[in-house]
Design brief:
heterodimer; A: alpha+beta; Ubiquitin-like (UB roll); 5-stranded mixed β-sheet; about 15% strand; B: about 750 residues; Aldehyde Oxidoreductase, domain 3; Aldehyde Oxidoreductase, domain 4; 3 domains; 7-stranded mixed β-sheet
Chain lengths: ~190, ~750
C-alpha cells in the first residue's frame, strides 16, 4: 500500500480531519474537515449547502461567491481557517424564513435566472453591493457583478433585477433601462 | 387508439423519415385572444433557482459515493501500447481502474469501448480511476503509467487540408459533407458585372456551460439510476442501453435542473458510461464530473471554418445577384458528423444560380459537438458579410439588397413556408435602430479617434419541431394539475411555457400547474436542442390538457346532470349552468381520483417548409487607433410565430446575442500546432463576455401565430438569436471604417490588420 502523500503529486500528506468552527447563515457549525479543503468544499460537502456552486474552482467564474462579513469572496479560493470567527452568508441564508430577500424576488420576476447556475453567486455579489450602496448606478451594478460569468441570460435581466430590488421593487419602482433598451415587448404587426 | 404515421422529422437541418405514434385527432389552432399564453409570465421554478434549492447533477450526493477522474492523453495522436495501473491501484482509497485492456465491452458512438486504441487529441480519455474521494482519484491518475507510441498529428484546419498533412483517415482528411446546386453558377459569375471573391474564417468556440458535464450513477442491483446534466434524458438512456446492454426498463435517467448545455449535452458521454460501469462493478454510487479544463478539452466545440464565397452582380444599382458560390471547410476534430455552414446560403435568398459545397475535415483536435445553431452561425457570418461587401461595391443599400432577394418559397425544396415574416423583421428593426440615419462610409464617433457605423444581417433556422413527443396531464381532485413529460428545462423556461399552455387549455391558473419533467419514467420527450422543445412538446401538452378537460367536463355533466356541451372550465371553475361549481366540488362527489389526459405531437404539414426568421441591427463605434470595437446598441427582431411567453423569449434572445458577441469579438480556442494542446482551456484566457461587454439590446417579435405550423402556432427560439449578430457586427465595422474583417473573433489586432489592408 502506498501511504497517502508518499511522493504523489497533488496528494497531501496524511492528515487527520480537524475540527473547524464556522459561522454560516447565523448558525455555528463545527465540522470535521481536512484543513486544506476549501470553504466551497466544506459548505457543499460537509454542511450540505449546495446552493453555492462550483463552476471552475480556479476563481475565474464567480459561481461560488459567498459573503464573509458582508464582503463577497470566492469560496473556491478561501480556506475555512481564513474565515474563523467571521460570518459567512450563502444563498441559503438570504431569505428570511419563507420570505424571499427582495433581490431573490426581483431575480425571479425579471427572469434574471435562466439555467440558474450562476444565480447564487450573482445574488451574493448583488447583496454586498446593495448593503453598501442602496442606490447604485448602472456603473456600480456592472462593477459589482463583473467577476460573475453568466452564459445564458445576457446580463440585462440581472442588472434590471438588481435595480428593481434597489428601488424597493414595489409599485412605482422604475426598472433601470439603458438608452432605449426596452425589453420583452412583443410588437404586433 | 394510438396509431402510427409516417413523417419527415428535422433536427438541426438534418431530415429523416420516421414513424410517429399519435393518438386521436390534432386540435385546431386557438382563435381569438389568449389570456395566459402570450402574457409575460414569471418562471414557475424561479423561487427554486434563486434560493439554492434547485438541485443540479453536481449537487447530487449519495451515501458511499465514489468519484471518477480520467487519465487523458497528453499527445495529439498516439497509439496506446500499454496501460499499467499497478501503482494507481496501490494508492489508498482507489477502488478500481478501467482502461482498454480490462474494460468490459461497452459500445459507444460506433466504437467498441470508450477507450480507443489510438488517442486522437490532447485530452482524449485513456483510462479512468474510481476512488473514495475526488482528490484521491485526481492523484491516482498520475500513477497510471501509459506507454504511448507517438504518431504524426495535425490540428489546424488549413494544415489538415494540405497535401503534406498526415492522413488521419484512409480516405483522406477532407470529405464532402453536403452540396447543392441550382442554375448555372459558373456562367452567371462569368457574365456578372461585379464579382466579390472573398475568404472568411471563423474560430473554434467552446460552449463553457457554467455547470460542467457530469453524471452520478447508482446501481441498486436491479436498476440503474443516472442523474445527468443533459439536454436529453432519453438520449442518455439510449446511450447507456447500448453501452451496458441493459434493457430500457432497467435504466432511469433524471435531470431536474441543469446549468446550461448549448448543444453539447445531447446524450450519454464517456463520463456517463464510466460512472455506470464502475457503479455496477463496485456496487456503489459513482460520480463523474468534468473539471473546467476537461470541459474545454473534451466536451465539444463549434468547428472552426474556412469559407470561400464568390458572388456576382449584374445591372447596376437596380441590378440583382447573378451567381453565388460558397465552399466551406469545417474542422470537425474527431467528430463523426459536421454541421453545414452553407445551409443559410441555400435558403435565405432568391438567387437563381447558386452552388454550395461543404467539407468535413478531420484533425487531432477535440470533437465538435452541436453548439447553438451549428453551421448557421459560421455560415451566416460569411454569407452576410459577402453580401454587404457586394452592396458596398455596387452602391446599393445593404438592407435594400436583401429585400430585393426576398423569397416566400424555400429555394432548396421549392416549397412554400408555413409563414415567413422576414420583411416585417427588416421593417421593425430598421425603424428601431434608425437605419435611415446610416451613411455610406460611416459617421464620426463620440471622439476624434472613433468612427460610428451600422450593420445588419438576416437569419434563417429551423425550429418547427415535430413528433415524437408525448405528455400526460394529471388533474388532481383539488383542481390543480401536473404535467408529466420526459422533456427537460435546460434554462430556457420549458417548465413555465408548458404550464402556461396547460393552464390556458384546461382553464386553470398557471400557478396551479406543476411540471414534472427531466425523467425517463415520464412519457417520451425529445432532445432539448435545435429550437424544437416548445414546438414539439407544447402541442402534446395542449392535447393532454384538452383531453383532461374533456374528461372533467364529462364527470361534471354526470354529477350536475346537465349536458356536457353546456359546460366549460374558466379560472378553475365549471361554468355554463346556472350553478357555478369548482373542480374540487365535482371531485368531492367522486373519490380521491385523478383525471389523466394524454397528448401526442402530430406531424407537421407535408409539402411545406417550416423555418424561423429574423434580423439583427447593430450600431457600434471603432477606435481607429487601437482597433477596439464598442457596441452601442443591438436590435433583434424575430419571427417565431406565436410568442408564448414574452419574458422568457426576450431572455432567450438576449442570451443568444451575448454568446454571439463572444463569437464575434472575443471567443476563440487557441491550439498549439506543435503539440496539439489547448492553450486557453479555462475561463481566464478563454474570453466569455462579461456584463461589461453587453450593450443595450432591443428585442422585438413579429408575434403572428403560424396557423399552419402546429396547434400552438408557435415555433422555436433557442438558436435564432445567436445566428446573425456576428455578421451584423462585421458589417457595422466595415460601415464605420471601410475596413472589412473577415475572421472571427474580430479582435483589435484583426481590426488593425483590416485597416492596413483597406488602406493598401
Amino acid at each position: 500500500m502506498t501511504e497517502r502523500g508518499d511522493g504523489v503529486e497533488g496528494m497531501p500528506d496524511p492528515v487527520t480531519k480537524q475540527l473547524t468552527t464556522l459561522r454560516v447563515n447565523g448558525e455555528t457549525h463545527t465540522v470535521a474537515a481536512e484543513p486544506h479543503h476549501t470553504l466551497l468544499e466544506v459548505l457543499r460537502e460537509e454542511l450540505g449547502l449546495t446552493g453555492t456552486k462550483h463552476g471552475c474552482e480556479l476563481g475565474e467564474c464567480g459561481a461560488c461567491t459567498v459573503l464573509v462579513d458582508g464582503v463577497p469572496l470566492l469560496s473556491c479560493l478561501t480556506l475555512p481557517a481564513q474565515v474563523r470567527g467571521m460570518e459567512v452568508t450563502t444563498v441559503e441564508g438570504l431569505a428570511d424564513g419563507p420570505r424571499l430577500h427582495p433581490l431573490q424576488t426581483a431575480f425571479a420576476e425579471e427572469g434574471a435566472a435562466q439555467c440558474g447556475y450562476c444565480t447564487p453567486g450573482m445574488l451574493m455579489a448583488a447583496k454586498a453591493l446593495l448593503d453598501a450602496n442602496p442606490q447604485p448606478t448602472l456603473e456600480d451594478m456592472q462593477q459589482a457583478i463583473a467577476g460573475n460569468l453568466c452564459r445564458c441570460t445576457g446580463y440585462t435581466a440581472i442588472y434590471e433585477a438588481i435595480a428593481k430590488a434597489a428601488s424597493g421593487g414595489g409599485a412605482g419602482a422604475q426598472p433601470l433601462r439603458r438608452t432605449g433598451a426596452g425589453r420583452a415587448s412583443a410588437s404586433h404587426t | 387508439m394510438p396509431r402510427v404515421v409516417r413523417t419527415r422529422v428535422e433536427l438541426e437541418g438534418r431530415m429523416t423519415d420516421e414513424l410517429a405514434l399519435v393518438e386521436g385527432k390534432d386540435l385546431p389552432g386557438w382563435t381569438g385572444e389568449r389570456t395566459i399564453v402570450g402574457t409575460p409570465t414569471t418562471r414557475i421554478d424561479g423561487a427554486q433557482r434563486v434560493t439554492g434549492r434547485a438541485r443540479y447533477t453536481q449537487d447530487i450526493t449519495l451515501p458511499g459515493m465514489l468519484h471518477v477522474r480520467f487519465v487523458r492523453s497528453q499527445h495529439a495522436r498516439a497509439r496506446v501500447v500499454r496501460v499499467d495501473d499497478t501503482r494507481a491501484r496501490e494508492l489508498r482509497g482507489v477502488r478500481a481502474v478501467l482502461h482498454r485492456s480490462n474494460l468490459p465491452k461497452a459500445p459507444f458512438r460506433g466504437e467498441e469501448t470508450i477507450f480507443r486504441e489510438e488517442a486522437r487529441f490532447v485530452g482524449e480519455e485513456v483510462a479512468a480511476v474510481c476512488a473514495e474521494s475526488e482528490e484521491t482519484a485526481a492523484a491516482a491518475i498520475r500513477l497510471v503509467d501509459v506507454e504511448y507510441e507517438v504518431l504524426p498529428h495535425v490540428v489546424d484546419l488549413e494544415d489538415a487540408i494540405s497535401e503534406q498533412a498526415p492522413r488521419l483517415d484512409e480516405k483522406g482528411n477532407v470529405s464532402e459533407s453536403g452540396s447543392h446546386s441550382r442554375g448555372d453558377t459558373e456562367r452567371a459569375l462569368r457574365d456578372a458585372d461585379v464579382v466579390v471573391d472573398a475568404t472568411y474564417r471563423t474560430s473554434t468556440q467552446l460552449h463553457n456551460s457554467l455547470e460542467t458535464h457530469g453524471a452520478v450513477a447508482h446501481w441498486d442491483g436491479e436498476r440503474l439510476t443516472v442523474w445527468e446534466s443533459t439536454q436529453h434524458v432519453f438520449g442518455v438512456r439510449e446511450g447507456l442501453h447500448l453501452a451496458l446492454g441493459l434493457p430500457y426498463s432497467r435504466i432511469r435517467v433524471i435531470c431536474e435542473f441543469m446549468g446550461g448545455g448549448f448543444g453539447s449535452k445531447g446524450g450519454a458521454g464517456k463520463y456517463t458510461i464510466a460512472a455506470a460501469l464502475f457503479a455496477r462493478q463496485l456496487g456503489a454510487p459513482v460520480r463523474c464530473v468534468y473539471t473546467r479544463e476537461e470541459e474545454n478539452l473534451a466536451a465539444g466545440n463549434r468547428s472552426a471554418t474556412l469559407q470561400h464565397i464568390r458572388v456576382g452582380w449584374t445591372g447596376g444599382r437596380t441590378g440583382r445577384i447573378s451567381g453565388l458560390e460558397h465552399i466551406s471547410y469545417s474542422n470537425s476534430g474527431q467528430g463523426r458528423w459536421v454541421a453545414d455552414p452553407t445551409g443559410p446560403t441555400n435558403t435565405l435568398y432568391k438567387i437563381a444560380d447558386l452552388s454550395t459545397k461543404s467539407y468535413r475535415v478531420v484533425t487531432n483536435a477535440g470533437s465538435l459537438s452541436a453548439f447553438r445553431a451549428p453551421g448557421y452561425v459560421e455560415g451566416t457570418f460569411a454569407l452576410e458579410s459577402a453580401l454587404d461587401e457586394l452592396a458596398e461595391q455596387v452602391r446599393v443599400d445593404p438592407l435594400e439588397l436583401r429585400r430585393r432577394h426576398a423569397t416566400s418559397i424555400d429555394p432548396l425544396m421549392a416549397l412554400r413556408y408555413t409563414q415567413k415574416r422576414l420583411l416585417d423583421c427588416y421593417r421593425i428593426g430598421a425603424k428601431e435602430i434608425g437605419w435611415s440615419r446610416r451613411k455610406r462610409g460611416g459617421t464620426p464617433g463620440s471622439a476624434e479617434h472613433r468612427r460610428r457605423g451600422m450593420g445588419m444581417a438576416s437569419q434563417i433556422w429551423f425550429g418547427g419541431g415535430g413528433p415524437p413527443a408525448f405528455a400526460t396531464v394529471h388533474l388532481n381532485p383539488d383542481g390543480t394539475a401536473v404535467i408529466r413529460s420526459g422533456t427537460q428545462d435546460i434554462g430556457t423556461g420549458t417548465r413555465t411555457i408548458l404550464a402556461q399552455i396547460c393552464a390556458e387549455e384546461l382553464g386553470i391558473g398557471v400557478t396551479d400547474v406543476r411540471v414534472d419533467i427531466g425523467d425517463t419514467d415520464a412519457p417520451y420527450g425529445p432532445i432539448s436542442a435545435g429550437s424544437l422543445t416548445l414546438a414539439s412538446v407544447g402541442p402534446a401538452v395542449r392535447q393532454a390538457a384538452a383531453d383532461a378537460r374533456e374528461q372533467l367536463l364529462g364527470a361534471a355533466a354526470g354529477v350536475l346532470e346537465v349536458g356536457k356541451r353546456e359546460l366549460r372550465v374558466e379560472g378553475g371553475r365549471i361554468v355554463g349552468t346556472s350553478r357555478q361549481t369548482t373542480i374540487e366540488e365535482i371531485f368531492d362527489q367522486l373519490k380521491n381520483y385523478t383525471v389523466i389526459g394524454r397528448g401526442s405531437r402530430f406531424p407537421n404539414p407535408s409539402e411545406t417548409a417550416l423555418n424561423t426568421f429574423g434580423s439583427h441591427f447593430v450600431q457600434l463605434e471603432v477606435d481607429v487607433r487601437t482597433g477596439e470595437v464598442f457596441l452601442e446598441k443591438i436590435v433583434a427582431v424575430h419571427d417565431i410565430g406565436r410568442v408564448v411567453n414574452p419574458l422568457t423569449a426576450a431572455s432567450q434572445v438576449e442570451g443568444g446575442i451575448i454568446q454571439a458577441i463572444g463569437f464575434a469579438l472575443t471567443e476563440q480556442r487557441v491550439l498549439d500546432r506543435a503539440t496539439g494542446r489547448v492553450l486557453n482551456a479555462d475561463l481566464e484566457e478563454y474570453k466569455v463576455p462579461t456584463v461589461r461587454d453587453v450593450p443595450p439590446i432591443v428585442v422585438r417579435f413579429v408575434d403572428v401565430p403560424d396557423r399552419r405550423a402546429n396547434n400552438l402556432g408557435a415555433r422555436g427560439l433557442g438558436e435564432p438569436p445567436i445566428i446573425p449578430t456576428a455578421a451584423a457586427v462585421a458589417n457595422a465595422i466595415a460601415n464605420a471604417t471601410g475596413a472589412r474583417v473577415r475572421t472571427t473573433p474580430m479582435t483589435p489586432d484583426r481590426v488593425m490588420a483590416a485597416f492596413a489592408a483597406s488602406r493598401a
